[in-house]
Amino acid sequence: MKTHEKPKLKDVAQLAGVSVGSASRALSVPHLVKPGTLQKVLAAVERLGYVRDGAARALASRRTYSIGAVFPTFNNPAFAESVQALQQRLSALGYHLIICSHEYNQAQELISVRNMIERGVEGVLLVGTEHSAAVYESLNAAQCPFILMWSLDGLHPHHCVGFSNEEGGRMVARHLLSLGHRSIAMISGVLAHNERAHYRKLGVLSELAGHGVTLDETRFIEQPFTLEGGRAGLRMAMELEPRPTAIVCSTDVTCIGAVAEARLLGIQVPHALSITGFDDIDVAAVSVPALTTVRVPLFQLGISSANNIVALIEGKPLARRERMPIELVVRQSTAVAP
Q1: Would you list the domain boundaries of the chain?
Q2: Full-prediction pTM beyond 0.90?
Q3: Left, alpha or beta for 315 (phi > 0: left; psi -120 to 50: alpha)?
Q4: If exposure means fewest CB atoms within 10 Å of the residue's CB, which of 6, 152, 230, 334 is most exposed?
Q5: What is the pLDDT of residue 76?
Q6: Could you count the other beta carbons within 10 Å of the beta carbon of residue 323?
C-alpha cells in the first residue's frame, strides 16, 4: 500500500495474516470470531488507521447494521443508564445505535422515526406503548421491525420489553397505606401521550380505592419530569386542604426536587411528610434522605431490548412480551404518618 492511499480491508487482512473474509467478519460480527483472530485484526486496524466505508458496505450487503432508538428525553438519568446498556450490547452483537429524543412531542417522534427509516436503520426501539397511528403506519409500510420498551401496560399486539407501571404505582400506594397515610397527593408527569405516567397514577388510585381511600383530581399535580417540576409540585401540594402527609412522585428526579423544596420550606422529610420516587436511579440511594422508590432494572432493560430487536431482525424465535421484575425499595424518605 502506498503511504498516501486510504487503507483497504485487504491491507488489514494482509497485516493481520488472515483472509479478507475473516477480517470482514471480525469487524462486522466480532462476537462470532475467535478472540485471537479478533485481536490481530483490531491491532491491524489501529496500526493502519483503517475506517470501513459504510456506504459501500451497505450497498454491497443491503444491510446497515444500525438500530434506531427514540427516547422521550435525555434529561432523565433512568433513560441514560438504559441507553448505555443498549449501546454496549448492540455493539457486542455487531450493530451500532442511532438515538434521538422527541421531548414528549408526538409530531417530533414521527419525524424522528421517518428520518431513521430513511437512513436505513434495520430496526427501531420506541419507549412506551402509546404512539400515534402514523408512527406505526410508517414502520409497517417500511417493513421495519420495532420493539416497545419500558412498558407492558395497555392492550396492543406489538413486541415489547418492560414492566407494569400500574403495579409500580400499586406498590408505592400499598407501602404508604401500611404506614397509616390517608391524606396523599401525587406529583405526576404530564399525562398526555405518556402512558407510563398514566398507569402509575392508575396504580396508585386503584390501590388506594381498594382500601377505601379516594383522591380527587386536585390531589394529582401534573409537572414535567424535572427537578423544578418536583419543586413546583411540592409547593402546590402544600397548599391543599387538608395537607397531605405523603406525596407520590412519578420519577426519582421529581422526588429529589420535591424533597429539596420541602427542606427549603422547613418541612421535615419523612417525619412531617413522606415522599416516594420511581426508577431507583443511582442518586436515589445517596439522596438526603435516601429515597423510598420503585426499583426498575434499568441496565437489564437496555440489554434485553437490544437482544430482542436483533432477534426480531434476524428472524429468531422471540416471545411477544418480556416482563422485567420491579420491586419497592424502602429507604429513609418515608415514615409512619404523623
Answers
A1: 9-52, 64-163+297-324, 165-296
A2: no
A3: left
A4: 6
A5: 84
A6: 12
Question: What DSSP string runs through 75-124?
Answer: SSHHHHHHHHHHHHHHHHTT-EEEEEE-TT-HHHHHHHHHHHHHTT-SEE
As a whole number of angstroms, the distance between CA 233 and CA 222 comes to 8
How many CA atoms are closer than 13 Å to the CA of 122, on its beta-carbon side? Answer: 21
Give me the pLDDT at residue 189, please: 82
d(CA 113, CA 221): 31
Residues in the chain: 338
| Count of beta carbons in the 10 Å neighbourhood of residue 46 | 10
Grid coordinates of 231 = 419543586
Helices 133-141 & 106-118 angle (0-180, nearest 10): 10
CATH architecture group of domain 165-296: 3-Layer(aba) Sandwich (3.40)
Burial level of 257, CB count in 10 A (0-12/13-18/19+)? buried
Strands 246-249 and 274-276, by their bridges, are parallel
Task: Provide the pLDDT for residue 59.
Answer: 44
Element containing residue 197 per DSSP (H, E): helix 195-210
What is the distance between the alpha carbons of residues 163 and 189, in angstroms, rounded to a whole number? 18
203 to 173, 229, 294: CA distances (angstroms): 8, 21, 13
Residue 128 in grid coordinates: 412506551
Structure-block grid coordinates of residue 118: 430513511
pLDDT averaged over 10-residue windows placed end to end, the chain, 338 residues: 69 87 80 85 84 54 83 87 93 92 89 91 93 92 93 86 96 98 93 86 95 91 93 97 96 96 97 97 95 96 96 90 95 97
What is the per-residue pLDDT for 308? 96
Place of cell 437489564: 300
pLDDT of residue 52: 67
Homologous superfamily of 64-163+297-324: Response regulator (3.40.50.2300)
Is 64-163+297-324's fold the same as 165-296's? yes
